[in-house]
Design brief:
The protein is of the alpha/beta class and 240 residues long. It is built from 8 helices and 9 strands. Strand 1, helix 1 and strand 2 form a beta-alpha-beta unit.
Length: 240
């Protein structure tokens, strides 16, 4: 299976540019996985412009069944469960609510994790320590949901497992207890779940990079600072 992976968007035209390039040069891809963080740009940007770009994505998403949309920390914390510290540019008021109303209708079709063969895709990475935490401290079997790539997460479920402080919150995400939308590569290196290569965004780097994890699998980091680039992977589907 040929898979294209697009990193964090943050209000830019990144998805639209990447999608155009995929259609022109990689039209034979079987899946297009988008790793989230649709809003909260790193530069000042009009909210209506961001929403317009997001709505263009949604229109394409609904018409192209190859597209998989994954939730990022800025989507969840800034707008769905409304933790202000992760809502970078629009802290209160009408602008935030406009974004919330854009995101809500699409929550039922969004994922936290998605897997193909022995590749696991998420916004930041899946830690075994985090899975142990949510299995121990929450009544619902969220570990099973994560590993089976549930979609259709509710606001309350996301608040249970992705508020960043279930066990040991760090603002930087640099410890193994952080969730799949918050952990950083230096923490994930030691605690990544066994058996999967992982493909993530979340941590800005200059170019798409592959590193080796302690468990012998690879970690691809795809957030190359909103440049119009994407990763192509050829994945054997029946590995597991």
């Amino acid at each position: 299976m040929k898979v294209a992976v697009i990193g964090d968007i943050h209000g830019t035209t990144k998805f639209l540019e990447c999608y155009k390039n995929i259609q022109e040069t990689d039209s034979d891809v079987d899946k297009i996985i988008v790793l989230g963080d649709w809003f909260d740009p790193y530069v000042q940007l009009d909210v209506d412009t961001m929403i317009s770009r997001y709505n263009e994505f949604v229109k394409i998403w609904k018409s192209d069944d190859r597209i998989v949309s994954i939730l990022g920390n800025h989507d969840i914390a800034g707008y769905i469960i409304k933790i202000d510290s992760t809502n970078r540019t629009i802290m209160f008021g009408e602008d935030r609510e406009k974004i919330v109303e854009s995101i809500k209708p699409n929550l039922s079709e969004s994922y936290l994790t998605y897997k193909i063969g022995d590749y696991m895709f998420s916004h930041a990475g899946v830690s075994q320590e985090w899975l142990n935490d949510i299995n121990q401290y929450q009544e619902h079997n969220y570990m099973n949901d994560i590993l089976n790539c549930k979609k259709g997460w509710t606001k309350d479920q996301l608040a249970d497992i992705c508020p960043f402080y279930i066990f040991d919150y760090t603002r930087t995400g640099s410890n193994p207890h952080q969730s799949c939308v918050w952990i950083r590569p230096q923490a994930l290196y030691d605690c990544a779940i066994d058996g999967y290569h992982q493909v993530v965004g979340h941590t800005r780097i200059e170019e798409i990079t592959k590193i080796s994890l302690k468990n012998g699998k690879d970690l691809w980091i795809v957030d190359d600072n909103q440049k119009p680039n994407y990763l192509i992977l050829n994945i054997e589907e029946n590995v597991r």
